[in-house]
């Protein structure tokens, strides 16, 4: 008799923005925005960070605004 491999599903991540009741994401809050950027300067996707689509859009906009006024780098080079 052959055993079937059990598929282990990872636990669903909870949106930290919804937990903290964040309405507006401030582009000047660099410490918070750095959590959503990789070492190379790329914006991390939702499946990695676990935030919802609404907060992902707000974070993306804040990161792009912070990059435009040189608070965050465009790349790590």
Q: Give the termini distance in whole angstroms.
A: 55 Å
* Biggest sheet record: none
Structural class category = mainly alpha
Percent of residues in helices comes to 25-40%
Report on this structure.
It is a single chain. With 77 residues, this protein is mainly alpha-helical. The protein has a domain at 23-67: 30s Ribosomal Protein S18, CATH 4.10.640.10. 38% of the residues lie in helices and 0% in strands. The chain has helices spanning 16-19, 30-34, 46-49, 53-68. One of its GO terms (molecular function) is small ribosomal subunit rRNA binding. It comes from Dialister invisus DSM 15470. Pfam families: Ribosomal_S18 (PF01084). InterPro entries: Ribosomal_bS18, Ribosomal_bS18_CS, Ribosomal_bS18_sf. Belongs to the bacterial ribosomal protein bS18 family.
Write the layout of secondary structure elements.
Blueprint: H1 16-19, H2 30-34, H3 46-49, H4 53-68
């Amino acid at each position: 008799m052959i055993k079937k491999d059990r598929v282990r599903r990872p636990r669903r991540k909870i949106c930290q923005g919804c937990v903290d009741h964040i309405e507006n994401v401030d582009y000047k809050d660099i410490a918070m925005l750095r959590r959503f950027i990789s070492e190379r300067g790329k914006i991390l996707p939702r499946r990695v960070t676990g935030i919802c689509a609404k907060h992902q859009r707000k974070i993306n906009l804040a990161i792009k605004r912070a990059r435009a006024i040189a608070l965050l780098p465009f790349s790590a080079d």
